[in-house]
Design a protein that fits this description.
213 residues; two-stranded antiparallel sheet
Length: 213
């Protein structure tokens, strides 16, 4: 079940978000559990492909959810159908749920216009102090800001299963996770609430003003 992102675990020395950053929106303040930000190195492995290194900002760090900011995506533009969903140089906000087999990204155009949510199925992210590691599992879900959702890379996932790149246990786990997400889509409960509440502007506020806390 996807975490709701509503329960806050307070770390030693915690100060309320309202005290730390009164200029932030109520949606942002209710999720913060520790003054940030910090920089992390994210190593993302794609089976049969190269490993990509991302340098990102960790702006919210809680036991149930981590929020990352990639300042500028460096790669080919991404399209779904005839719609461009991500530009080279565009920011991405990622929501990492420890122990979950997916993460959720808020995608944008180069000037920061929000395009929608991208659910990326992957093994649970290995979270270190400054080095994080993720392993892609091919299957993705695209939810535009307005319009119908669309499953992506299903053929690539099937080929990886048939070739043995993805083992039987993992393929079954992904199938269960997909079924759970599909159920939540029907109920209007996907993506998780925090991915709806926290937008690019709020994440930039956290990054830019974190040292003022």
């Amino acid at each position: 079940m996807a975490p709701s992102g509503r329960q806050v675990s307070h770390a030693p020395g915690y100060r309320s978000a309202g005290t730390m950053r009164p200029w932030l929106s109520p949606d942002t303040r209710r999720y913060i559990g520790w003054p940030m930000p910090s920089r992390i190195r994210f190593e993302y492995h794609r089976p049969g492909k190269d490993t990509t290194i991302y340098h990102e900002w960790l702006v919210i760090d809680r036991p149930d959810v981590k929020v990352l900011l990639l300042d500028e995506y460096a790669g080919r533009e991404m399209t779904v159908g005839k719609s461009r969903i991500l530009d080279d140089g565009a920011p991405i906000v990622w929501f990492i749920f420890p122990d979950a087999w997916y993460d959720v990204g808020r995608f944008h155009r180069a000037k920061g216009t929000f395009t929608g949510w991208y659910t990326n199925f992957s093994r649970p992210v290995q979270v270190g102090e400054n080095r994080w590691v993720g392993y892609d599992l091919f299957l993705d879900l695209w939810q535009p800001a307005d319009g119908s959702h669309e499953w992506l890379d299903e053929e690539e996932f099937d080929k990886a299963v048939k070739s043995g790149i993805i083992d039987t246990y993992t393929s079954r786990r992904v199938a269960r996770e997909r079924a759970s997400v599909e159920s939540q889509l029907v109920d209007g409960a996907w993506p998780p609430q925090i991915a709806r509440d926290i937008d690019l502007k709020q994440v930039l506020d956290l990054r830019n003003t974190g040292t003022r806390s």
